[in-house]
């Protein structure tokens, strides 16, 4: 079995108090190994998004422990958690989150700008990342000049440009039609297979989850099932 890169141990996340208490996660155990491609599924309110937020260091457990590559994230301060996100995690969102008045290339450069990477290296790495998603010829285009599928490819390139250990994708096909959705899933699948990137993807669509190697389903804050997909699409 692969070494766990992400691990939740008896993780709880509770919001509110008394009669208003909501137990979003209720004693969740989850281990994700290096180079896995995992779909996290469940209905609204099942806990899947809360789980993703904790894995992405965007939220903290109320109880239990989250370990990233063997290190307890609960023992890190706010700056250290921010550094973990910046250095080791790449994010892809349903809404693309591109800067409207900034070219595709400049959008992809942004994480490197925040790291203080010099301009010539930023440009070279951003172009390389766009090439990986098949958009090198659209580098100078603004988001408004790109289709939804192309915008999501730019967002994936931006997530890849820092060479993260993990890509966390939250409903990455949620704003796309069926054809563009398939193209994005095929791209993620190819990146995973060719470059051994660990990908954790939240989705409510079984046909998109079918591209993943493993399916984890949440219900009422707990893991209902955790199974391998023997024949990914």
UniProtKB/TrEMBL annotation:
Keyword terms, alphabetized: ATP-binding, Nucleotide-binding, Transport
Gene3D superfamilies the record matches: P-loop containing nucleotide triphosphate hydrolases
Keyword Transport tagged: yes
Signal sequence annotation: none
Stretches assigned to the ABC transporter domain: 6-233
Key word Transport present: yes
GO cellular component, one term: membrane protein complex
GO molecular function: ATP binding; ATP hydrolysis activity; transmembrane transporter activity
Entries under CDD domains matching the protein: ABC_MJ0796_LolCDE_FtsE
Family, as annotated: Belongs to the ABC transporter superfamily. Macrolide exporter (TC 3.A.1.122) family.
Protein name: Macrolide export ATP-binding/permease protein MacB
């Amino acid at each position: 079995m692969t070494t766990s890169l992400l691990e939740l141990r008896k993780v709880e996340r509770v919001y509110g108090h008394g009669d208003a208490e909501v137990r979003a996660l209720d004693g969740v155990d989850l281990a994700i190994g290096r180079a896995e491609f995992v779909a996290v599924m469940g209905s609204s309110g099942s806990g899947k998004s809360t789980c993703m937020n904790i894995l992405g260091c965007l939220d903290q457990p109320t109880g239990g422990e989250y370990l990233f590559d063997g290190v307890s994230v609960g023992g890190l301060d706010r700056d250290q958690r921010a550094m973990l996100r910046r250095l080791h995690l790449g994010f892809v969102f349903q809404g693309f989150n591109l800067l409207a008045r900034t070219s595709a290339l400049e959008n992809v450069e942004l994480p490197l700008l925040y790291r203080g990477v010099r301009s010539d290296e930023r440009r070279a790495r951003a172009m390389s990342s766009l090439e990986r998603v098949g958009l090198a010829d659209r580098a100078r285009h603004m988001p408004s000049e790109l289709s939804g599928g192309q915008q999501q490819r730019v967002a994936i390139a931006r997530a890849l440009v820092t060479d993260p250990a993990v890509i966390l994708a939250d409903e990455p096909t949620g704003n796309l039609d069926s054809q563009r959705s398939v193209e994005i899933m095929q791209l993620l699948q190819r990146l995973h297979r060719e470059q051994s990137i660990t990908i954790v993807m939240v989705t409510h669509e079984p046909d998109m989850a079918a591209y993943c190697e493993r399916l984890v389903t949440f219900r009422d804050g707990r893991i209902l099932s955790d199974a391998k997909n023997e024949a990914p699409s």
